[in-house]
Amino acid sequence: MATTQQKKAEPKKSQGFQGVRGAIWIIVACFIIAVCIYKFVFGNADNFVGGDPEAAVKNGNLLGTIYKGGIVVPVIQTLLLTVIALSIERFLALRTAFGKSSLTKFVKGIKEALKSGDMDKAQQLCDKQKGSVANVVGATIKKYKEMEATSGIEKEQKVAQIQQAHEEATQLEMPTLQMNMPILATLVTLGTLTGLLGTVTGMIKSFAALAAGGGGDSLALSTGISEALINTAFGILTSWCAVVSYNYFSNKIDKLTYALDEVGYSIAQTYNSTHEA
Hints:
The chain is built from ten helices and no strands. By secondary structure, the chain is mainly alpha-helical. It has one domain.
């Protein structure tokens, strides 16, 4: 009893970067950076005629044109920076989850150890590999050994308990794998919608200025349209980055969960085939 309590009290060893749970602070930091870029880079006096940000943009100056996109620009920049930051965060977290060596090589090594019936070697591979897959496989092997030392219950029940241990360990690891993925999925749509919002508001301002002038100034109209479309461009870029990032990491997670299922099934079947009822 005391030994069991001692094992439960043992803290889980840190295995590297586990991800950022407080994504709100990433968003806040990205917003502050975006506002600073908007005010001090895009709004730099050198980008405008006479050094006045409220004046016309110097001919061909892209940064000044982006600044004229309005208040929506730092909002879209915040979304874009958030996508980049969360992509880096997910890359580091999943690299830790996959472990120190190739996942394919690790799964192959575990299968070979199972085939030869060497559970100690399989456990050594888990200790060396680390990461989410190794954690789950290690927990399943531990239950495997526990069932070997247990008597008084049928083989089918032992196999079921091994499978249950595998599923429970997988469920413990999944939150770390899926962390911040819903935010990336949301940014796929939010980037485009925010860009369209900036375009619409920019067009409204452009046509309002033309109406107030009482004439069809084609230069003012074309300038206003180009400023408005800057928001669309930023929005599309944000969504493009978000969808690529989301699909890339979703594929990574699918590979990892497939490896977990494959190894878990192999361990259960090994017990079922090598132990008598």
